[in-house]
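Example 4.3 (complexes with small molecules)
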Amino acid sequence: MAAVAPTNGLILGALKKSSVLLVTTAQAQHPNCPVPAGNDLILWHLHLTLHTIWICFKLFLGCFLCRHYCKLGSTREEKCVIKGSCKENETNENIIILGACLVGIIGVSLLVVYNCSGQFLTIRERRKARSRENAIQLARQQLRAHQGWKAAKQIARKHVTGVQDHLSRTFSRRRSFRQQTDLENSSHRVQEARLMGSTGPNERSDSIVFSAQNTSEISEVMPSVVMDISNDGEVVATNDKPAPKGKHRSTQTQIFKYAYGEIELEKARQEENKNMSFTGVLAKVKELQKEMTRPLLKVEFKNLTLSLGKRKLLRSVTGELQPGRVTAVMGPSGAGKTTFLNAVAGKVTGYQVTGSVLVNGAQGSIRSYKKIIGFVPQDDVVHGNLTVEENLWFSANCRLPARMSHRDRVLIVERVIESLDLQGVRNSVVGTVEKRGISGGQRKRVNVGIEMVMEPSLLILDEPTSGLDSSSSQLLLKALRHEALEGVNICAVVHQPSYTLYNMFDDLILLAKGGLIVYNGPIKTIEDYFSTLGIHVPDRVNPPDHYIDILEGIVKPESGIKAKHLPVHWMLYNGYEVPSDMKDDLKAMGEQSPDVDINRSMSGSTPHCLPAGVTNAFAQERNRLEHRLSKPGDLSSRRTPGILKQYKFFLGRVTKQRLREGRLLGVDFLILGLAGICLGTIAKLSDPTFGMPGYIYTIIAVSLLCKIAALRSFSLERLQYLRERESGMSTLAYFLARDTIDHFNTALKPIIYLSMFYYFNNPRSSIGSNYVILLSLVYCVTGIGYTFAICFNPGSAQLCSALIPVVLTLLSTQRTTPTFLKNMSYPKWALEGFIIANAKRYPGVWLITRCGLLFRSGFNIHNYQLCIVVLFMYGLFFRIVAFVAMVLLKKR
Ligand SMILES: Nc1ncnc2c1ncn2[C@@H]1O[C@H](COP(=O)(O)OP(=O)(O)OP(=O)(O)O)[C@@H](O)[C@H]1O
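Answer. The structure with adenosine-5'-triphosphate bound is encoded below.
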């Protein structure tokens, strides 16, 4: 009892310290949260954390009471006899209690961190936001100054000539004197003007000479520009603040200032360009083309045919996508638009593909250019537990050239945020199905932004405007048009665009059902083409709607032409060969109009697709594996960050995700702790069994809980992973980063479980030896969990994770189970490790009398280290299996 009292005080003291720490942490956060919502949030966190501490306190009190009553039990005397010294036993118990206290303190501190983790991230973001806002203000001021300075230059130029002429003609002493006085006055005015602002760095070298008479006029136009008057009466524009150099330049505010300076200038240029004449626009485009830094990608597809068994999803698709143009892909639902995009981007696996896709006129795999191809999927595959900015930054970091400076990256990301109008939600978490985040339209824009920030040369978008209102769609199209000006080849599937939106595209690919092209060319000429077929768009009808209605069969063309013949008309119009399986259509058309030359147009055989029976399921699977394992050489000439750098980015991302999921982890720990209390109490410790029942329960419970937690690591973000992999990110970096962060749990979970189990069960082995075994067990089962998560669908993976530990533990404890099978199951090694750790604590004769159990179970007292090694090896083996499975993973 004497030993318990000081320990009680110790726990109370520790708890007090924790609560003080908690309050101080919250108070430290308080001044940084000027927003009332932030204060509420902190109070809520405080409340939650204090509540948790109160629960922990009650738990510990319960532990002490239990412990106190146990001490009065009969087992204690027996233990004293076995160990030989009661005094030594008491010292051990005190160490255990101290250990438990420490564990408690760690637990409480962790809960504090977990509860406030989200806040840490928010505070960081807020600080960054403040420096960004300052930079935006500065940039806008500078732009105003820049514009003012330009206007002033124009005024000055106008006056300089006139005044000089005037002066040369009527030069007089009196006038000269008056001018001198004016100069002095204006000098004072300019000195005042100097205090008001500065010009942009671009204007530093600019200087202009003009009469001081005009100074007041100029200072009205450009209030923030700085001027200096030289002794001879000349006014020279200067910058009063020198451009920051060296280290200073790389501060966050400076970087934002640079980025927003550029963005504001671009905006101003766009405003100027609005009123430009056609020739002016052409000149501007040429100018921009000279500045282009991205490689240009021209994609041609010839006789592209895609089949799935006997069914043809795309048929003889021929055409091209040109750089610097925005192409719309339209057609009825199910026509094969998504399939077409996938075929162009080289993302088709498991299909039979014939025909060819040429990049810049050269034959080869388009996957060789995947580092400069952006693909925006139809579904918004974004990370729900990251903010908008974090999503964009991750893509920029991993996919932009590794050598690009941070300053330029900031400019690119900020430009995309501005152009997609995401400024207001940049720090909001995107949200998941369970947790609401930003709106659907904003999510869609983030989905597009992820691809825009990597500066693609070919940008393919599957329904980017679906779910967006008219203004957001136009905003998005404007952003895409701006990209096209830089030479990007853009191709997007769109549904029912408004007339304005439709006219924002340059080209159109119109697909009919069955994956056949009806039209491919400039939007401007589509009406001319269809009018040659006698199809005219009625007044007040949007042209694309009319054509799609015809293709759907809702509207019958006045000319009597059949909708199903439109693809053949297109082939004949362009002189393409008509596949032989479409000869019936051709004949029917020939009967309708005798101009159609059937023999010339028809191809002799079916060159585009293989007979359906040839490609069986096995061949398809082989195809898929070849596609997955073959690594086409990289022709994109872009060096993205290597595996190590990507690992760093992945690590940062997973850490943020885990911090935001802090409560989920807290629940995991709580369940483990409760399991420890329950199993430690239920399992009666008896010397003849070395506490075997308790350890069997432990192995089952810990395996089950840790495996299910490990499933979350890889099964939840499968689609995101596939998207990242397709864009060229490293699977190894992704896998290692997740595993590295999970090591934190691997180390902590055994502590939490043992802090309860060890205390309630009070086994003979040391807490250290138990921890090592449990650590290796958790490492092993986490690896198995990864394998299940990657190889099976979530339902099956959960079932396996629940069943396997129970079945294997039962197998390994049955005497009738063959030794080979026993050795194959990991619970056998964990159990052996625990039992040996206990057995080693029995001195000589006490061990000999209990040797029977060891023999019967096939355990060897010298195998303790082997058990640990085997468990770690299992963990490593399953991690390798999981990684290989991940590499071979296909998109379901
Ligand atoms: N892997 C597949 N298995 C079975 N059918 C498929 C597969 N891929 C495509 N299809 C079929 O091919 C046709 C074209 O599909 P796709 O998704 O390309 O159409 P879409 O024009 O994009 O349709 P929507 O406009 O409705 O999105 C559909 O009938 C679809 O069922």
